[in-house]
Each structure stands twice: as C-alpha cells, then as structure tokens.
C-alpha cells in the first residue's frame, strides 16, 4: 500500500511494497529524508559513495540530497516499507541532552554509514510501528496523518538507541569490506575538485576502460561521467546553500574549469541556474 500526502504535509508512506528491478529508479536524490526497512528479499543498495547488501531486517537511512539507487535480485525481490518525510515535520526542541530526532540522520550522513542491521527483537518492534502507520493512514481517522508523524518520531528514537548500542566499543563500520568499486567511489568523492577521467579511474581499478564502465554502470545505474557530474552538482548545491562563495569560485572548487559548462550541468540536473537556485533557497537550513 502506497499513500502520498499533499504538498502542505510533506510525508508519504509505502507499506510492504515490492518492485521489479526494471521499475527501480536510476541513481537519484530528493528533497526529503527516507527510511527504508527490508521485510524480505536480497539485493544491493548504493547510497552516496557506499555499497551495501540488502537483507531481511536491514534499515537504510537516506538523507535529503543524497544520491542512491537500489538494485534488487531478480530471483529474490525486495519487499520493503518506505517513509519519505521533510525535516520540517520533525520536532527539533532542545531538552538539554545529547539527542534530537534528526541527530540520527545527521550522524549517519557525517559518518557516511547509512545502514543499521536489526536484531530479531528490534525487527519485530519496528515492524509493529510500521503496521500502526499503515493502519492509521488506511482508516483515515481524525488526525491520522499527524499520528503517523508521531509514530515516525518513535521510529527515529528507537533507531537512534539501536545504533548507539551497536556503536559502543565498535570501530568505524565503513572501513571494512572495501572492494575496488568501493575504493573508486570513495576516491571520486574525495577528488571532486580535481580532474578525474575515465582512463584514470579504470587504471586505478586495474581494469580496461570498457570493462570498468560496464561494471560501474551495472553497480550505480549510470556511467562514470554522469555519476561524477551528479556528485559535483550536488556538492555545488550544498555550497550555494551554506556559503557566500561566488558561483565562479564554487564551479572551480568542484572541478569545472568552464563556467558555461558548469551552468549547463547545473540546469541539466537541477532544472534552474545556480543563481536562481541560491535566491530561491536563501536561508534554507
């Protein structure tokens, strides 16, 4: 069941939905945060510069403006519950303790680690909360949309506790199990300001350019050049929102020597010019 609420209430909910691989979106990002819970099935999930295995009981957190792309197995489709929500709906009151409902998302983005593996007891508890949201929205009782958001707060709190418990005495999970593709994605992320070419990446992976391009597209859903441009443009969005740097400075900082080329790429992926984007979003957190 998929429920989309109106623009004045930026929240949507998809309960126990399965998609064929051909119906999955290619690499994309959106303005809302996203929580994905895997009920069953297997696949791979690409988020930002990380590759993950998808299995029953996994939770994925995708912050807004973060590139991601799911790739379920053809013979074992993913069934998942997904919540999309705007940060504006989440309470952000300070109660003089090291917790806020959005701190989980902020910390996972900062650490570039977007997956939580749940134990069976936690799986059952979270599944109960997802079922309550589905019931609220299906029955359309008075305040059902607001009730759904309140339950989403409880989900964020529970996931924060689970992650805090799992991280006690544990090293950075993002450091382990890195294959050559993971290393390439990390390299691109760390070198957006430099010249990065297809032959350079293929050489680093010790592969021919043709084989490298083919595997890269199979993994991320797009070619290396398109991926690099998207990463650069989303970095430009962050700098336009959170700095006073000139557009020319930002273009150079993310690796574009040609200002017209930067403008073309920005319009291609965002739909408007960098200057118009900055004016329209001035003061946005």
TrEMBL record:
SUPFAM superfamilies: Homeodomain-like, Regulatory protein AraC. SMART domains: HTH_ARAC (SM00342). Residues 182-280 form the HTH araC/xylS-type domain. Keywords: DNA-binding, Transcription, Transcription regulation. One of its GO terms (molecular function) is DNA-binding transcription factor activity. Pfam families: AraC_binding (PF02311), HTH_18 (PF12833). The keyword NAD does not apply. PANTHER family: ARAC-FAMILY TRANSCRIPTIONAL REGULATOR (PTHR43280), HTH-TYPE TRANSCRIPTIONAL ACTIVATOR RHAS (PTHR43280:SF28). This is AraC family transcriptional regulator.
